[in-house]
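Recap slide: DUF2997 domain-containing protein, sequence and predicted structure.
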Amino acid sequence: METLEFVIYPDGRVQEKVTGIVGASCAEVTAAIEAQLGQVVSMEQTSEYFTQPTQQSATATAQATYSSW
């Protein structure tokens, strides 16, 4: 599940936490929000940021051998 969590501090700072989005696409999701909030002071990537989306594929190979005896 994709989740955006915001913590707004009394001094006006906003902390944003993104979970459930794999790879760098989280930056695309949050870009418009960050532009409206103002200057980004710091950014820390989570392990999900560095995870690559998985693609599964299966290949089957069949080999038939016959004995001559």
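Residues 21-53 form one domain.
The longest strand covers residues 3-8.
(End of recap.)
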